[in-house]
Amino acid sequence: MLNSHSGVVRSDGSHIPISEYFGELTFGLGQMRERLPRDAYQDLVRSLDQGRKISKQTADAIAKVIMDWAVKRGATHFCHWFQPMTGLTAEKHDSFISIQHSNHSELKVIERFTGSQLIQGEPDASSFPSGGMRSTFEARGYTAWDPTSPLFIIEGPKGNNTLCIPTVFFGYHGQALDNKTPLLRSVQTLSTEACSFLKLLGDVDVKSVMATLGPEQEYFLVDKEVGSRRPDLLMSGRTLLGAPTARGQKLEDHYFGSIPPRVQAFMEDLEHELYRLGIPVKTRHNEVAPSQFEMAPIFENISIAADHNTLAMETMKRIAARHGFMCLLHEKPFAAINGSGKHCNWSIANDKGENLLDPGHTPHQNLRFLAVAAVVIRAVNKHAGMLAASIMSPGNDLRLGGNEAPPNIISVFLGSMLETIYDSIGKGEAARATEAQIIELGVSHIPDVAKDYTDRNRTSPFAFTGNKFEFRAVGATANVAVPSCVLNAAVTDAFTECTARLKTQIAKGVARDEAVMALIRELINENKGVLFSGNNYSAEWREEAKRRGLPIIGSAAEGLAVWNNEKATEFLVSTKTLTRDEIAARYHIHMERYVKTSEIELETTLQLVREYVIPAVEQQLARTYGVTKDAKLEALKTSMGHRLGALERTMTDLLQYSEGLHTSLGKLNELTEEPLKVDLLVKETKPLAAKLRRAADQAEQEVAHEFWSLPKYRELLFHPSMR
């Protein structure tokens, strides 16, 4: 599938290594260093280091080299690419052309791109969600270039390509109207507070600290022709009706299985496109559920990783369509099998490139590792409620707590080695691991292997996995900038607190390393309630979590309400991640999105039942009634009578619950306040829809296949081309 069309094979038939075309559609600081005049590049670097504006002269110089590069690669347009609070990306395309008047009043078209066009744009802010921060008559909004994220080219279907400029999006008074601005703020304050803490530990020359992220992306692929005959997939991205198949994932034969050729062709095409966009995809494999797959990148700077994950999701959908697939990124496209998450592998590194969550080779590095990991544990315990709120959505509501998705009780899994070390420190004992770090396999021709620092716990929402923490509870559709900025802010707040505590001890004359060990001991003993290494699915853990006082958020509606809790969100303000107005805006936007998403799903469910299910049952009833009436044998008449009775009961349920759902939706439309709508949705409307679905799924199993026009789960999940 990948040949000269994709550019990975030379004309002589030899393959082109990934390293030769990786990032060929991107333009970042490296390319600027090569192409810019020395003075312009140095001014750009100083501007980035000092957080000041780029001069007009430098901006114009940058714009010129960018345009020259982009036009040579077929770009006819440019756009400011940003991430408004819609959960999607946005862009407005402008062409490079400009009109030049000659002496004879003739018009001449030239390519022109200025520094001001590069740095700033002005989309209509009132057309994007603002949570009340912007009114319709207050239309001004601005996009501003983020020089830390590479520019990239998206190729058009007819060869007219577009230069995309990653930007932030903000209102006239500086309010963050996007998901990226708070992330960039959190990165900056995290670096400042982490450096203050590390200097007390003895890293006096540390200049900056960087959070890194590697988001694993799960997704489903279904045949486009089959999937397009499901209105619920088209409207909501998930199946709102559908009886489980007999097979499902019972055989456990899909995970890490042989990748079907059609799917591998898609993956190869996708990876090629992502490599050209500078996205370092590392892993691809079959996931647990049928027709479910995963893609994982190498970790990057957290803000770039967030941009890349968003861009990757857009690219996945585009390439899937090219291969005749629908790419489903919803957290729960199908009932009774695994949903899709986005495991966010988060870590933190200093300006020397040392991973601060990786034990080192010296006593100081190990002490630093234990201290930083303890700070993260403190952050998660202190702000567990807000971390849970940051990943809640209507889709994730359906996924969390079952089929290998962690529950919505935020806890930390450390693994036996680190748990043993911290337990020893907490008791005031010597910090030693009790396990040998070599696994002896006992097979002569296979070498012994080094053991990781921790085992895996697939039920844990926040697990330490060797040199990083894996935030497993994030949903597949999420913009990772949102939970990432909350996590960054939580860790920043913990660093600030721990720096103050450490300074107090050192001021009392306690030796530095002793003070650090004392702090670690205090942190572990104070926050051990958030540590849990068992089965997070168990009822016993839920009861234990209650006893420990951990936040237990039962639904997305409860989670989103945390955004409206001033005490729970105070750390976002103190770390300068979000202002009070921006937090309030996000609460209203999340609530409104919850309501609108629910309304779309509920109205689509009602339409499916009325347009597809009830007519199918009517046809089956007519046939069954005729067979029953014409039956000669008494036993057959009795059996058919039973079947007719079951169908009539199912039809009664369908009519009753569809009418109830219709009435409830009417009541919902009469309400004007979002909290009241959410309350009605949770207590009445969604439970009615659940009953209606059960009746519809029962009907699917009772109605002849010839009458059932909606593609079933077996057609969607077990399409012959996916085997």
Helix content: 40-55%
Q: Total number of helical segments?
A: 23
What is the count of β-strands?
21
Rg from Cα: 28 Å
Which structural class do you get from the secondary structure elements? alpha+beta
How many domains? The number is 4
Largest sheet: 7 strands, mixed
Straight-line N-to-C gap: 18 Å
The average pLDDT score comes to 88
Envelope shape: globular
- What is the beta-strand fraction? 5-15%
Which residue ranges are poorly predicted, with pLDDT under 50 across at least 5 consecutive positions?
Answer: 1-6, 438-451
Quick description:
By secondary structure, the protein is an alpha+beta fold. Helices cover about 50% and strands about 15% of the residues. The protein contains 23 helices and 21 strands.
Please explain how this structure is put together.
- GO terms for molecular function: glutamine synthetase activity.
- Residues 76-174 form the GS beta-grasp domain.
- With 723 residues, the chain is an alpha+beta fold.
- It has 4 domains: 18-81 and 91-127 and 135-174, no CATH class; 177-216 and 343-578, no CATH class; 219-242 and 249-340, Glutamine synthetase/guanido kinase, catalytic domain (Creatine Kinase, Chain A, domain 2, 2-Layer Sandwich); 595-722, Up-down Bundle (Four Helix Bundle (Hemerythrin (Met), subunit A)), CATH 1.20.120.
- Helices cover 48% and strands 13% of the residues.
- The protein has 23 helices and 21 strands.
- Strands 1, 2, 3, 6, 7, 8 and 9 form a 7-stranded mixed sheet that branches.
- Helix 6 (180-201) packs parallel to helix 15 (481-507) and helix 20 packs parallel to helix 22 (674-702).
- It is globular, with a radius of gyration of 28 Å.
